[in-house]
Amino acid sequence: xxxxxxxxxxxxxxxxxxxxxxxxxxxxxxxxxxxxxxxxxxxxxxxxxxxxxxxxxxxxxxxxxxxxxxxxxxxxxxxxxxxxxxxxxxxxxxxxxxxxxxxxxxxxxxxxxxxxxxxxxxxxxxxxxxxxxxxxxxxxxxxxxxxxxxxxxxxxxxxxxxxxxxxxxxxxxxxxxxxxxxxxxxxxxxxxxxxxxxxxxxxxxxxxxxxxxxxxxxxxxxxxxxxxxxxxxxxxxxxxxxxxxxxxxxxxxxxxxxxxxxxxxxxxxxxxxxxxxxxxxxxxxxxxxxxxxxxxxxxxxxxxxxxxxxxxxxxxxxxxxxxxxxxxxxxxxxxxxxxxxxxxxxxxxxxxxxxxxxxxxxxxxxxxxxxxxxxxxxxxxxxxxxxxxxx
Length: 391
Description:
The chain is α/β, with parallel strands linked by helices. It has a five-stranded mixed sheet, sandwiched between helices. α1 links the parallel β1 and β2. α13 runs antiparallel to α14. GO terms for molecular function: carboxypeptidase activity.
């Protein structure tokens, strides 16, 4: 699924029209239609989506996800989102760890639209992306080819697909390295002149590159016999990058409040053990898949698609203000519904524990924290079992 919104606060020449039906999305659709006329057929269905009501709270995409939830969970593989092109220097991609390899592979195939970057020897959009955003953090187990990739946050139309249904998403744009947005954002000066003469003055070459990347990502997931979803990357990121910070936080709190934090620390140990079992199972699964014939691709694809859905907890998000918060790992925090976060229910509960008025309240919050950790463990167990051959 490829999508963008078409509503705007004012004129919207950049947000959303740099990505929407009037420009890139429409051109990508036209290109695929031409390919079909020449005899190409995608192995999987491509769906082009244009949402309304994004600026007023992601209304169109959210209503669509809720109305067709069962169909999407059964059939949707990935949602590829472009909100706006924010500048003209480097590609920026936000996605989940299981798609790191796929987004890098596609970027290596798209020519660099910026002449000054090509003069530096950076011939693809990947080269510039990697140069300006080198890998950081504790990703020593990850291929050095992978640039720094953030998780998807809120504020745009991919949110319900990931947070409500557990469908993998990719959100990408072009931006300036020095700043994330642009001074005319959501103003009455966001007109076509800005797009054509300030941001993308080389015959809209950046728009073309984004369209090529969008199309290549869609083709990759539509035509690959084995879906390019890397379950072991997902598991290793959870084990090496997401959990250690929580373990350290809990240990520090346990030293000061051993009784109150005891249940949570015990449950954290269970989650830690289960996560490394998950790592082992993903690696075994990938060895089995690549050692067998292509006839098993459908068997493998069904399991790969279900891994992310294991982390959707239907009991989360029952409150009206939290109705989209069902993803155990990637749902947004109560404190910030725009920025990306990891295990927000766990981390929000830790914050509550730290700010509690007395030890009686901390005892209650410590037990609630243990429950949140148990929910994560159950999701990891589900994902582990999904990848076993007898499931």
